[in-house]
Write a structure and sequence with these properties.
Layout lengths: L3 E3 L17 H19 L7 H12 L5 H15 L4 E8 L2 E9 L1 E3 L6
Parallel strand pairs: 1-4
Antiparallel strand pairs: 2-3
Helix pairs in contact: 1-2, 1-3
């Protein structure tokens, strides 16, 4: 795993969200806070499913982000830091195949290298 660095701020990130239904006035702060929670939850480099990410965020922040929103933030991490920032693979254990799990290579608390 190659670690990528990211600043550790409550206003993370300096990221331009977008889309047809996106309204900065209504969505920017909420999506930025959600992205920060995902980065914090995933910053230990462990593999997690969407439900495990959701449970970790709930346990640490008492916020329940929908799995669809978490999936969107994982895609945002790839857009912001590049493909290597977020790995994905199918989990093959306990007789269950097909569940996707994710691992972040972003380390919070450091400036992003140019």
């Amino acid at each position: 795993m190659t670690a990528l660095s990211a600043p550790d701020t409550s206003d993370l990130p300096l990221f331009q969200f977008g889309g047809r239904t996106y309204e900065a006035k209504l969505d920017a702060q909420r999506l930025g806070a959600q992205l920060t929670r995902v980065l914090q939850a995933m910053s230990d480099g462990r593999w997690r499913t969407l439900s495990e990410i959701q449970a970790r965020i709930l346990a640490t922040t008492n916020k329940r982000d929908p799995e669809a929103s978490l999936s969107a933030r994982l895609r945002d991490i790839r857009k912001l830091y590049g493909e290597p920032a977020m790995e994905s693979r199918r989990r093959h254990e306990d007789g269950v195949d097909g569940i996707w799990e994710y691992r972040s290579n972003v380390v919070l608390g450091q400036e992003v290298a140019a």
